[in-house]
Design goal:
Elements: E1 9-11, E2 14-16, E3 23-27, H1 35-48, E4 52-56, H2 60-72, E5 78-81, H3 89-92, E6 98-101, H4 115-129, E7 132-138, H5 144-149, H6 156-172, E8 178-183, H7 187-200, E9 206-208, H8 218-231, E10 238-240, H9 252-265, E11 281-284, H10 295-306, E12 316-320, H11 326-329, E13 335-339, E14 344-348, E15 351-356, H12 361-382
Helix pairs in contact: 1-2, 6-7, 7-8, 8-9
Length: 383
């Protein structure tokens, strides 16, 4: 294993980067305004040994809830996920040790304001409250200006450019207490993107994760492959395993993450150089406080059971739990679903088929899956 070269940053009582141990973190899966349920999630993650715990805020009610959560769990190292409302930063900063923002989401509020002004505001807030920052780039919500520059086949370069630009903004503002994450649901893209970024900015700490890795065991396999390939190269200072799990099993993400790190340290590698997926590929997000209906978790498991008959077909189905990343991160799937409180949006590639209730969606998904299988058979027969 190559030694890591990144600078050190502090998140509460945890240091990442440099020669510090790789930190393991996760995110609460409940709605933040459900204070009791979110506290329970924090307790589960702390009990499992989480170094850092992320919570999302989307509105002033979430901020009020966060204050109560912090009061109940005073020793937790908390990261706040600012979602699409970056102006909440000054409200939540007193309660957390790190601010996480997605460059692609900065476009949604005050669109007339230049991005660098929004970043300056975030840096000023972080500096005033002693918070670290994470520039979190996700494949499904990339800066639209970056996406427009490249072909649809190149989803990696826009992510890297977005991360690089925002690093330069923070550097220009004299703020170095930041890390970067570049995530995709495809472990190969996670590997390639992080290798390219680390070559360009070897001193910047990296948070690793395969977003929407899915359900165990497949989600663990995808994540393990990415982590083994990157950490063995000296890339990665903190990790998250993103699995679709029942709320009470949230701590499993931490347990799995530590097991993977222990295996890597001991030289117990289980992956191959590339992740080559054959047959049915189900992508599902790990659930978080953005998810508006807990039925999403049951839906993901039901989709896996219902589609068992199609497992030999090279088809990707995505099951996403929210409006924030769901629309964008289902575009590359053959069939995609993103879930609202009372209905599910069904897509074929980037095109929307329609909205269906949770009771209707499995039947309609099967209809569309059968159509897709038949089309692929027809194409194969013609060839």
């Amino acid at each position: 294993m190559k030694p890591r070269q990144t600078r050190e940053i502090r998140i509460g009582n945890v240091k990442i980067g440099g020669s510090n141990p790789i930190a393991v973190q996760s995110m609460t899966a409940t709605r933040t305004i459900d204070i009791a349920a979110t506290i329970r999630q924090v307790e589960l993650l702390e009990a499992a040994g989480a170094d850092v715990i992320r919570i999302a805020v989307d509105n002033p009610k979430d901020v009020t809830a966060l204050a109560e959560i912090r009061a109940d769990r005073p020793n937790a190292n908390l990261v706040i996920d600012l979602q699409e409302n970056y102006r909440l930063a000054e409200k939540v900063a007193p309660y957390v040790q790190k601010l996480r923002y997605n460059p692609g989401h900065l476009y949604h509020l005050e669109r007339e304001k230049p991005i660098h002004e929004k970043v300056r505001y975030l840096v000023d807030v972080a500096r005033a409250h002693g918070c670290a920052m994470r520039i979190g780039v996700n494949a499904g919500s990339v800066d639209p200006d970056k996406v427009a520059k490249y072909s649809h086949d190149d989803s990696i370069t826009p992510m890297i450019e977005s991360a690089m630009d925002h690093c330069a903004m923070l550097d220009d503002l004299g703020f170095d207490q930041y890390c970067v994450s570049i995530k995709d649901s495809d472990p190969n893209k996670v590997i390639d993107a992080n290798i390219r970024f680390a070559e360009a900015r070897p001193e910047v700490p990296l948070h690793l994760g395969v977003t929407e890795a899915g359900m165990p065991p497949d989600g663990i396999i995808k994540t393990r492959i990415a982590f083994e390939q990157l950490i063995a190269r000296g890339i990665g200072d903190t990790i998250r395993v993103s699995l679709t799990l029942p709320f009470e099993r949230k701590g499993d993400e931490i347990t799995v993450g530590r097991q993977i790190l222990d295996d890597i340290e001991q030289g117990r590698f289980r992956s191959v150089p590339r992740f080559e997926h054959k047959g049915l590929n189900i992508i599902s997000c790990p659930s978080c406080s953005r998810v508006e209906n807990e039925a999403f978790i049951d839906l993901a498991h039901n989709v896996r059971e219902m589609t068992e008959y199609a497992k030999q077909h090279d088809i990707t189905i995505a099951v996403m739990g929210c409006r924030v990343n769901g629309p964008g991160e289902t575009d590359d799937a053959d069939l995609g679903m993103w879930c609202a409180p009372s209905f599910v949006n069904l897509k074929r590639g980037p095109e929307t088929i329609g909205q269906f209730t949770y009771d209707e969606i499995l039947g309609r998904l099967r209809t569309e899956l059968d159509k897709l299988i038949e089309e692929k058979r027809s194409v194969g027969a013609a060839v």
